[in-house]
């Protein structure tokens, strides 16, 4: 079913698991990502940055997600990730995205509250879910760098949520966008305090660097949406370099691209399985 974020997270909350949100970077990788989630019975959030959304075309992304969600036994949410512009949000909703993130985290608190409220008011009218953010997540995404993230303070999160009733709240607990080589030290104690302070389902960004052994602890502390982006780029690119570098120029493109899509599907299958509560097994480097 093509659905919004709210019921998918509510179900995860009720049963006690986390939903994988995977960034698509081109249109090719979307069908294998959805098929991977279907194969293990997990719901999936396909998310795109505003940049990717413009590159692929918002309506094209909606059409693919919608048709697969309607034909296959899988719940699919199409989510706009890290939108800072209200125009991007309006365009995505008009195109048929079922969920959006408004990222006002770099604005002063009062402005983040005011703008987030406007987005929620606009989105609710159209039956679309909204994720907001308090605290800032460091790292680089889409070429935009935030040198040092500002960890989310539980009191500030509580004050924010009192005024902003969103469907999901992104928090900063030590993860970084774009990191994939080292393992991230996440602050589980801080996450626990945020979880106790706010009822909203929590979202972890920059998830690629998080140790898979920590997933259970995150789920237990209210994380209902977990974003994976960088690992998908790395998997796709590595496979594509191998195939493109090894084949003749006139080889069917399928021979080069299918292995890259398969690599992405494998990441989704593995991560989504762990988010449902599977036990991690050692993974080859
Ligand atoms: Zn993010």
UniProtKB/TrEMBL annotation:
Fetch the Gene3D superfamilies from UniProt: Aldolase class I
Q: Which Pfam families match?
A: F_bP_aldolase (PF01116)
Active-site residues from the entry = 81 (proton donor)
The UniProt keywords, alphabetically, are:
Metal-binding, Zinc
The record's listing under InterPro entries reads: Aldolase_TIM, Class_II_FBP_aldolase, FBA_II
Where on the tree of life does the source sit, at the highest rank?
Answer: Bacteria
Q: Which GO terms describe its biological process?
A: carbohydrate metabolic process
Residues reported to bind Zn(2+) 1:
82, 177, 205
Which SUPFAM superfamilies does the record associate with it?
Answer: Aldolase
Cofactor(s), by name = Zn(2+)
Q: How many cofactor units bind, and how?
A: Binds 2 Zn(2+) ions per subunit. One is catalytic and the other provides a structural contribution.
| Positions that bind dihydroxyacetone phosphate | 178, 206-208, 227-230
- Record has Metal-binding as a keyword: yes
**Gene Ontology MF terms:** aldehyde-lyase activity; zinc ion binding
- The UniProt annotation places Zn(2+) 2 binding at 103, 133
Question: Does this UniProt record's set of keywords contain Isomerase?
Answer: no
Q: What is this protein called?
A: Fructose-bisphosphate aldolase
Could you tell me which species this protein originates from? Answer: Agrococcus jejuensis
């Amino acid at each position: 079913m093509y659905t919004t974020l709210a019921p998918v997270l509510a179900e995860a909350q009720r049963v006690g698991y986390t939903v994988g949100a995977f960034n698509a970077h081109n249109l090719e990788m979307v069908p294998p990502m959805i098929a991977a989630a279907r194969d293990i019975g997990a719901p999936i959030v396909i998310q795109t940055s505003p940049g990717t959304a413009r590159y692929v075309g918002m309506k094209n992304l909606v059409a693919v997600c919608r048709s697969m969600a309607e034909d296959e036994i899988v719940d699919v949410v199409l989510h706009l990730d890290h939108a800072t512009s209200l125009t991007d949000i309006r365009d995505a909703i008009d195109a048929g995205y079922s969920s959006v993130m408004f990222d006002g985290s770099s604005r002063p608190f009062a402005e983040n509250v005011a703008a987030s409220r406007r987005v929620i008011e606009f989105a609710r009218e159209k039956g679309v879910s909204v994720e907001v953010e308090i605290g800032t997540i460091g790292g680089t995404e889409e070429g935009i760098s935030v040198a040092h993230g500002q960890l989310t303070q539980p009191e500030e999160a509580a004050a924010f949520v009192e005024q902003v009733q969103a469907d999901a709240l992104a928090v900063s607990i030590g993860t970084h966008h774009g990191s994939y080589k080292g393992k991230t030290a996440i602050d589980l104690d801080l996450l626990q305090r945020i979880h106790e302070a706010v009822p909203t389902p929590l979202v972890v960004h920059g998830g690629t660097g998080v140790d898979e052994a920590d997933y259970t602890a995150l789920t237990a502390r209210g994380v209902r949406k977990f974003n994976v982006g960088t690992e998908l780029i790395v998997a796709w690119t590595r496979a594509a370099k191998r195939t493109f570098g090894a084949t003749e120029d006139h080889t069917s493109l399928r021979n080069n691209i299918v292995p890259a899509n398969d690599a992405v599907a494998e990441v989704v299958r593995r991560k989504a399985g762990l988010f449902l509560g599977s036990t991690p097994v050692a993974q080859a480097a």
